[in-house]
Design goal:
- Helices cover about 20% and strands about 30% of the residues.
- It is α/β, with parallel strands linked by helices and about 350 residues long.
- The chain has two domains: about 5-125 and about 255-340, 3-Layer(bba) Sandwich (FAD/NAD(P)-binding domain); about 130-250, 3-Layer(bba) Sandwich (FAD/NAD(P)-binding domain), CATH 3.50.50.
- The chain has a six-stranded mixed sheet with strand order 16-15-14-13-12-17, covered by helices on one side. A five-stranded parallel sheet has the order 6-3-2-10-20, covered by helices on one side.
- α1 (about 20-30) runs parallel beside α3, α1 (about 20-30) crosses α6 and α4 (about 165-175) packs across α5 (about 195-205).
- The longest helix has 19 residues, at about 300-320.
């Protein structure tokens, strides 16, 4: 059997969330090409998987956008540099080859080679925490969902949301306008959510626009994956509650997965980096975004954008050791504007 030849590129980015997508742009300005690998089935990371329609307020220059809108804008921004995406794939192996380049293998069999690898995997591979309810798997993807990707999908439905954190309260507030009926079940009257979200929910219950159930889900009822209702275990006993849709929001389980076996020094499941280059303990491997650790680290998207810019300049000599890097501004450089297609008619 012939040995598979790896596809060569300048940079392999592990993770296609907002920070990985912005790295495509920053690296592209330096005429560096990228391949991106992500375990999810589309780019965007948590922005598209968990809160595609939830507003984000702290992106510089953009007062308000959703997770999906931010992803779309970042994809459009990086489009001139033709990044190659490998979605629904997980890195299973990372090793040095005879050319002193990094070789990456995925569970799909993709084989890539590059002088530089950038880990932009957020908190690692993540999965929603599922409630311990019998046969819940039978309803997943039909009437039980762990994320809201399209609000219209739930229009006119009887929705029950389970949980007491930000996601649960936010989606009660956001989906109330499209749902036929909406309720929240939580085992306590105390919520772990932003005060504004809690106040909005309390106001909705007072006005009869939403219902609160103090208790837990004990059982699901339905046929062929379609819910008809649930049994709630409350203080006064068990009750049956009609619902077409169940949205459990109990947080996420974050796992480093194979990243833990990359031979990197780790700090509490995060990757330490220096703040000048954002390079790891392995030369040619960089880490940006929530996956990295350094003194004063803030887990914000805008922090990851800053890290992507500095990482790109630090990575350049590994890829083009015989070229001198010339710093340019997009506002004044005709070369960069041509690369972005700004001067093309």
């Amino acid at each position: 059997m012939m040995e598979k030849t790896p596809v060569r590129t300048d940079v392999i980015i592990v993770g296609a969330g907002p920070v990985g997508l912005f790295a495509v742009f920053e690296l592209g300005l330096l005429n560096l090409k990228c391949h991106l690998i992500d375990i999810l089935d589309r780019p965007g990371g948590q922005c598209t998987e968990l809160f595609p329609q939830k507003p984000i307020y702290d992106i510089p220059g953009i007062p308000n956008c959703t997770g999906q809108e931010l992803t779309d804008r970042l994809l459009e921004q990086g489009k001139p540099f033709n990044p190659v995406f490998h979605c629904s794939e997980m890195v299973t192996q990372l090793e040095k080859n005879s050319d002193d380049h990094w070789q990456v293998t995925t569970d799909y069999g993709t084989l890539l080679e590059a002088p530089v690898v950038v880990i932009a995997a957020g908190g690692g591979s993540f999965m929603p925490k599922k409630p311990p309810i019998k046969d819940i798997e039978d309803y997943e993807g039909t009437s039980v969902f762990y994320a809201v990707r399209d609000m219209d999908q739930f229009r006119g439905k009887n929705i029950l949301i389970a949980g007491g954190g930000d996601s649960a309260l936010d989606w009660v507030n956001n989906l109330q306008s499209v749902a036929k009926n909406i309720g929240l079940v939580h085992r306590r009257k105390v919520f772990r959510a932003a005060p504004d979200s809690v106040n909005k929910f309390i106001s909705m219950t007072d006005e009869g626009k939403a219902k609160f159930h103090l208790g837990q889900i004990a059982a699901l009822h339905g046929n062929n994956g379609q819910l008809e209702g649930v049994t709630l275990k409350c203080e006064d006993g068990e009750i049956f509650q009609d619902c077409d849709i169940l949205l459990p929001f109990f947080g996420l389980t974050m796992k480093l997965g194979p990243i833990a076996d990359f031979g990197l020094n780790l700090h509490e499941n995060l990757i330490p980096v220096d703040t000048a280059r954002f390079e790891t303990s392995q030369k040619g491997i960089f880490a940006i975004g929530d996956i990295n650790h350094y003194p004063g680290k803030l887990k914000l998207i805008l922090s990851g954008f800053h890290e992507a810019a500095l990482m790109s300049h630090a990575a350049f000599p590994y890829i083009k050791p015989d070229e001198k890097l010339r710093f340019q501004y997009t506002t004044s450089s005709s070369n960069l504007q041509n690369a972005l297609g700004i001067n093309k008619k």
